[in-house]
Amino acid sequence: MVEVGVPQPDEAAVAARAGAQRGRVTLTQLRGAGLGKSGASKRAKKGLLHREHRGVYAVGHDAKPRWASEVSALLAAGDGADVAYRSALELWGVLPPRPGRRVDILVTTPRANRGGITVHRTRRIDEHDRTRRWDLPVTTIERALLDAVE
User: Fold this and answer.
1) Helix (H) or strand (E) holding 69
2) 20 to 30 Å CA-CA from 79: which of 5, 32, 69, 148?
C-alpha cells in the first residue's frame, strides 16, 4: 500500500543499479534512489534485501551469480579497489575458484578488514597493473602473480 504524501523509492533505479552489479547495491545507492534511512532495514526484515557486508546488499535474493562475491567485496571496499592476489588469479582462470573463500581486494587508502574480505593495502598502484575482467576492476595477471608469492 502506497501512503499518500510519502515519497516512494525509485524501484526502477534500484533494479537498474542491481542489474549492473550482479544483483548487489550499496546503502548509498539505495538512498540515492530515494530509500529512506530505515528503508534498507525494513526491506531486509521482509527478505527484500540480504546483507552481504556492512552497507552492501543483494537485492531480492541471496543467490550468488558468478563473481557476485567479488562485486560485493569491491562495493564494500569503495572506489578505487581492485580484485587482487589469489582472487585475481581465480578471476583470470589461473587458479580454480574456492567456494566460501575470502575475497582479496587491493586498496590504496586505509580501510578496515571486513568479514569475507581480505583487504591488502598499497601506497599506490600503477595504472598498467590495473585492468578489467568480466567487467570488474582487477589487477593484471602479472601483478596478481607477483602479489601471490609475497
Assistant:
1) helix 68-77
2) 148
